[in-house]
Every structure is written in C-alpha cells, then in structure tokens.
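Schema walkthrough. Field components (list of strings):
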Amino acid sequence: QKEVEQDPGPLSVPEGAIVSLNCTYSNSAFQYFMWYRQYSRKGPELLMYTYSSGNKEDGRFTAQVDKSSKYISLFIRDSQPSDSATYLCAMSEVDSSYKLIFGSGTRLLVRP
Amino acid sequence: SQTIHQWPATLVQPVGSPLSLECTVEGTSNPNLYWYRQAAGRGLQLLFYSVGIGQISSEVPQNLSASRPQDRQFILSSKKLLLSDSGFYLCAWTLDSITQYFGPGTRLTVL
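Field assembly_structure (string):
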C-alpha cells in the first residue's frame, strides 16, 4: 500500500464547476499537508498548506484535512480553464528534514 | 525575493554517459535542498536531501549521487547513466522547513 493515494483522473469539468480533489494516506504521523499545481512540463507550484486538521481558504481554493479519516481535499470554486493542470497532494511529518511524500497527482481539465 | 534555477532545461544522453545537473538558489541562506525525480504520469520521488553544506542524505539506492559544495548549490550526478534514469528532475528548497518551492526542472532522456 502506498503511503499517499490519489486518483490519477483525468477529471473533466465544465467551466464554473466546483472541483473536488482528494487524497488518502496511511501514516498517522503526517502533520503538514500541501497541495501543489503542476502545469505540463513545469515544476510544481505550491498552492496551499495546512497544519494538522481543519480548513483553510485562499480565494477560490479551500483545503480540508480530516486526520481521523486520513483524508484531505482541495476544493476549487468557479473553476477556470486556466486551472487545467495536475494537482499533487503532499504530506510530511514534523522532523528536521521535512521530507515530503507526494501523491501521484490528479489531472484536471476545465472545459470552456 | 528567492529564486531557484536549474540547468540544463533538457538533456538527451546516451546510456553509459556521465551526468551533472545543477541547482542554485538565490536570495536566501542555509536552505534545505532536495532532488526529486518524476516519471511520466507519476508523483515525485525524493532522491536526496541536504540540510547543510556537505550533508547529503540518500533516500533511494540507485545510480545517482548528490553533492552540495556551496550553501546554495546542489548538484546531481551519475558516472554511467541507465535507461531507467530518464525522467523529470526537480530541485526544491525550503527555509521554514514546511513549504518546499520547486525549480523549473530538467527533462532527461537517456537513449
């Protein structure tokens, strides 16, 4: 079993839709949870991060963490064609190296 | 502001040839530095990380090595490339030990 599981998609939605992206994990020691956006042939770009459980909102993006279920989500409201990319979740324990463990990414396509 | 550079952007190398990829960070001091590899359609695999000059930790035993000769320079090397070394190599840095910021990547094709 992988430490972090993520549906590869592709997920295709019409412009303006609410998008829900999810990851599950097995390591209860994970404390930091990140979402990265990666456009084709580019490096990942950090979108949001949260510590422990709870919600965090930034513009059209909302990140949720449910540690009891080992489940994290990223919601995108009013999705735009420019949101079309691969979304990677990542997690880390609290130690001196802060190594990130990544999901395999979900490819999102927002249709105009 | 901080900037991370990687070069070359793309590289095509024959099997058995050596490799040297370079990553430099500007605008910060004493960052943690990381090398990742991303295979097509897959997530990022951590290869090496460094918490200081000369300090390298290897995550995956393989054909690659890393060095950190200066505070903001991280080098990924190989003496003899394998076909399986093909992929998208990404360098990342962090200063607050929470958020990692990635460079533009190097796309390596081994033929």
